[in-house]
Structure formats: structure tokens, C-alpha cells
Amino acid sequence: MSVAITAVLVVAGLSVPISTAAPAFSAGADRVETSPVAGDPALGDDVEASYVRLHYPSPYSTMAHPEACDWISFVRYRSKRGPERSADADAVLTVQPGTFSGAANMNPQGPQVVRKAAATGKFVEYISLDRRANCAEDRTGWEAADKARDYHVAADYYFGGKAIDGKSYRYQTPQDLNYLGEYGLALTMDDWRVVIEYLLPDPGARTKSFCGGHSLGAFLTGPMMAWDFDQNAATTEDAGFNLCGGGIIPEDGFAMTDPAGFAGAPPLDMFFSAVGGAVKNGVDWLLKNGLGVAQWPVLAASEIMNVYQLAGMAADQNPDGESDLKTLVPAELRTEPWMRTFYGKDYLDLFTGRNLPRDFRLTNTAALGMLFDQNSAEYVLQAGMGYYDCPTVGKTYPIPNGLASVPILGPTLFIIPLRVGYGQNYTPVDHNQLCGWKNYDQMPASTIDGIDPVRGNPTDRDHEVTDVGQFARAMNPGGQPTDFFEEYTPLRIITDTIFALGLGRDGELRQLQNRSGGILNFLLHGDRWQSTPSARRNLTLLSGDSPLQNAGYGGLLPANAKIIPGYRHYDVVTAAERQNNGMPEMASSLIANFLTQP
């Protein structure tokens, strides 16, 4: 059959892709380092956190790279009353973070899951994965600022050009990071496998292994379940659905293995995989030659993430102090277009740069709220953390407040944009008045009329679920070994996922073999329309105010998906343990129950 496909490609005038097959199935880590993590109030006196590093030079990383990139790392949460060894736990959940996200994203959720399971007499471990690309980050300024308890030390290092112990921060260009162009789906899946095999070396014990993820990480659970690491269907010990033998937990994302359903038509599958593979080879070449990370002259991910993390550190170290970020962070092309796109009050602000966070007098907490609260930030960078403690006015960018109140059109056409933050965002009225922040538990009660973005309360306690202080602690990169953000997310992990789930399962991506469902499979064989993995249990959690739930209209979501009311994108992993409605936090409760119930 492969000869026939090659002939078709030649006749069609297409070049036959020269694809590199997956490396031989390799062993796991040869060295382990473990260190305790302390200082997070979320741990309480019953949960222990440790930072674990596994030395595992990846067979998928062949270009010259720093030695630090030969390590995989993760944060391990466990009950102090539970067993010392992961292999003796009742369940082990390994979780992938989202795009431009690090392991610290899970700081609020990890301890909650462990604690709630322990309350039922079950001991589970929550493993927050820190993807390999974090090896490229320079943490010198954060560590020094944490030691000095002064975020200005970090600002001077990352934005002011000041050296620390003779070392200066250097902006890394895409060419400096060419090696990250190899860090795609195959490397990520293989690293995940190594962690699971380290934690649970006995294949027979992996029925208690669960795989989860948030945002991009949620979408990675599908390929993980479908992955065949040795590409031998006769051996299933290495198959993703056995490595994640207990099931998967996608959070504000969903698992897919073959949306188009080409597995049901092998000739077409081979043809389109080969054609797509030719395109993928070209994309991979570009990614390994200067386009592998979002480090561009206009918009640079590392500088944007440094601004965010500096805001988190300031809010954590001095929550009520007046923010001076506007004097510490220069307005330059690497960050300015991003800030205008996400935080302008109206369309004129896109050109003038007015009404941005730097233009107001804010406490450090309010500055963090302006950057990430669902009533201020646009798109998906949102959590429900409270509201301004000063007079505010509604934004008209990108969509004016109150559109949902338009008869007929409002409740229908505008419901999707409302779920990504459009039409209910605000900014302080007075540039000169110091504006503070009211935490999530200081909001007014909901009313029978709900939120009225035109004349009534802009929010209520049912839509504010994350503690802004805890959010600041998670975002503060000092005093913890992992970051809330991944400054150098390899773009190849995204492009590979698109090719693997679409038209390009060639070379390394041939390992995505155990596919199910999909549109063509449905039309030809009556299989399921959705391509959600069906080999194991699935707990899909969606934020109630998230656009992703609209995928249900296309039949892409599992029927048992749980939608959590009032949550935004980050809330599903950052929501506070004590909720305003008097109920336990729902996402961690559902996860703990899923891990401990047969």
C-alpha cells in the first residue's frame, strides 16, 4: 500500500516527504533529584510538595542544547498521612499545563485534590508536569528578588539591565532557541511516559494512573491515549491508554484522537498523512530555523510573561502598596501591542495606548486584577478574582457592554463572545484616584435579575471564585522551583497537535495509532461522531463561562462532560478551596471523586 501511495504522490507532482521515524523505544531516567517545596499556604499542614527532576536526555532532541534541557521536572503533591512511594498510592494523576503555562498553574488545585481524597480515606498523588522547554528560562532575578523580599530586584534584572552576581539578563532570540523547534508532540508524549513509568514502574499498577491537563494540556490527553510508543500493536504495555489506565481528566479543553475520522478509511488516511507529512516537514524546518518560539521583534513571549510574573510577585509581596510597574517596565514593541490588544478601553486606545494598566493608580493587587480578572482582561486570560474597589466604567472594546440585553440577538448571537469576556468588562473611571481591590469573597450576592452590565452590579459572588492572594502566590516565580508561565512554549507542540489530529500523521506522529470515532468513521461505519478516546474513563471539566463548551453544538464533547457554573478559563484550576456558595470547590471535588471511585 505504501508503494501505491508513493506512486500517487509522484503522479500528482508532490514530493515524497523525507520523514524521520520515531527513535527506538528508549528507557527511562538514569538519575533523580528531589527537593522539598515549602512556603505555600495552600499546602496547609497536611499536604507535602516536592520538586522532582529526572535526568533523561530525550531521543527527540538532537540539536545542540543546554545541559539543563536533558532533565524533566514536576511538582509532586501527596498527603503527609499517605504512603511515601507513589507506587503505593491509591491513585496518581499527572497533569499537563496549558499554552505558555508552567507547573505553578496547578498550585491551587493540587493540594485540594489530595486533601479531599484523603478526607475519604484515599491517598492520591497530584503530579504537576513542568514541560522540558522551561530549561531555557533564566530564573536569576526571581530567586534574588525572593531572597531580598523585594520585587524591584527582579525588575532591575529583567528590565533595567542590572547584573546580579556578575550575571546579566540576555534576551534570547528565536535563533538562540532553535533547539526548541524539536520539542513537539512526540517529545512531550515521551516525557510524559517517562514520568509515569518512574512513578509507577509496575505496568500492572497503572490502572491507578490518570492523565489530565488544562487548556492545551487538556487537548494533549487525547493524543496521549492514542499513542503507541513502540509502534507495535501487539504490545500494549507501552500504549498510552494503558499508561493512563485509570482514565483522563481534560480541564477546559477536550480530548480528541481523530476528528476527521480517517482511521475508518485507511487508503485515504495514508494518502492524506503522506501529503500532510510533506507540509509538516516544511513547517518543522522553519520551526528549527528561527520560528520555533514566539520571540519576535513585535511581541516576545518571554518579555510579556516577565511583566505578568513581576505583577504577580508585587501583588504577593506587597498587596496593598501602590503599583509602580509603569516606572519599572518599559513600553516597547515586544510588549506594547499585546497590552493594547488585551487591555484597551475602546478602539482608540489601540492607537493611543491610553487607558492601559500603567495609566491608572492601582494597588499591586488591583494591578494584577486588571491584568487577569474576567471583568477586565479580554479573551481567555481570565479568572474570577473579585472586582475593583473604586468607581468604574464599562469598556466598548472589543464589544460594548450590554450587548446581551439586545432583544432576540443578545441571548443568541452574543452568547459566545460573552463567554470569552466580551461585553462585560470595566476599567476605573479616574486615572488619579488610587484604586484598590475587593477579593472574590467580598462581592455582593447574586440577585434574581443576575448581572446587569449596563445599570446593575457588574459581577456577583457566583461569578467570583478565585482568591486573588492565592493567585498572586501561584504567579510569583520566587520561592518556588517552577513558574506560572512557560516563557518559551515550543510552537511545534501546537503545530504537531494540529497535524496529528488532522492531515499529517507522518514520521514521529505515526505513533498516534489508537484512534477512534470521527466524522468519516461515522459516515462509513456508524462509529461515534466525536473522537474522544473511549478506551478508558473520561472526566471532562469545562468552565461555565468558557467558549469551549460551545463545542458541544458540534458533537465534540463527551455526553458526561461537567460544566462548572460561574467559572472562567483559569478558574477551573485556580478556584479557591472555600467557595462563596458554601460548597466545596467543584473542580477539585469532581477530580478527587473520579480518582477514588471505581
Helix content: 25-40%
Which word captures the global form? Answer: globular
Structural class: alpha/beta
Low-confidence stretches: 1-18
C-alpha Rg (nearest Å): 24 Å
Mean of residue pLDDT values: 90
Outline the biggest β-sheet: 7 strands, mixed
Distance between the termini: 43 Å
Count of helix runs: 20
Work out the strand percent. 5-15%
Structure commentary:
With 598 residues, the chain is an alpha/beta fold. It is 30% helix and 12% strand. The chain has helices at 2-11, 109-118, 140-148, 151-158, 185-199, 216-226, 240-243, 266-287, 301-317, 325-328, 336-343, 349-352, 364-372, 409-413, 415-418, 468-475, 491-500, 519-525, 571-574, 586-596, and strands at residues 31-37, 47-55, 71-79, 91-96, 124-130, 209-214, 247-251, 386-389, 392-394, 426-428, 436-439, 541-543, 562-564. The strands form 4 sheets. A 7-stranded mixed sheet has the order 1-2-3-5-4-6-7, with helices on both faces. Helix 2 (109-118) links the parallel strand 4 and strand 5. Helix 4 (151-158) runs antiparallel to helix 9 (301-317) and helix 8 (266-287) runs antiparallel to helix 17 (491-500). The longest helix has 22 residues, at 266-287. The radius of gyration is 24 Å and the shape is globular. It starts with a helix and ends with a helix.
